[in-house]
Amino acid sequence: MPIKRALLSVSDKTGIVEFARKLHEAGVEIISTGGTMKAIDDAGIPVTYVSDVTKFPEIMDGRVKTLNPYIHGGILAVRDNQSHVAQMQKFNIQPIDLVVVNLYPFRETIEKPNVTLAEAVENIDIGGPAMIRAAAKNFKFVTVVVNPKHYDEVAEMIAKDGCTTGKFRMQLAQEAFCHTSHYDDCIQEYLTAQLSK
């Protein structure tokens, strides 16, 4: 499946601007959120704000921004299922072929001295894991990237072939589920420690 549309939303912005530039040069439309969008826009790379896709503003201090059918429908749609395709057309949902997400720095937050429970809780990412898991589930059609080390490889594949390989997408999906699993483990271990105080 050709990669025509990408969603980039990263806490760790290492290499994201250069990756976005390569995607743009390959003809990929870029959707983004908050700080990631600003970094891409500041670099002069065309980018669409996620709220322009969802037709809804980021609300509740950013707690709710990507939890929307225009995002998750675009990620989860089974592209060779005519019912899914018909529903995409009916509701004007555009496919998202590449999801590049890494998560709020929960571990780094709780390692700070004197961090409060409230500060820790605000660094529990919700939309990020939801997008990662959705993209990883639909790896037959969607490429998910949670680690900047893959940016160059993904960009090269898109520049050369317009897409990624099925085996590579499955590999990235496995890595994505591992990433969210470790993230959740860190959260539950922290909360367990709080309960024992």
TrEMBL record:
Highest taxon in the source lineage: Bacteria
Gene Ontology molecular function terms on file: IMP cyclohydrolase activity; phosphoribosylaminoimidazolecarboxamide formyltransferase activity
GO annotation (BP), single: 'de novo' IMP biosynthetic process
Domain MGS-like: 1-146
Keyword Transferase: yes
PROSITE patterns named among the record's database cross-references: MGS
Gene Ontology cellular component list: cytosol
InterPro entries: MGS-like_dom, MGS-like_dom_sf, PurH-like
Pfam name, any one: MGS
Keywords of the record: Hydrolase, Multifunctional enzyme, Purine biosynthesis, Transferase
The protein's name: IMP cyclohydrolase
Originating species: Megamonas rupellensis
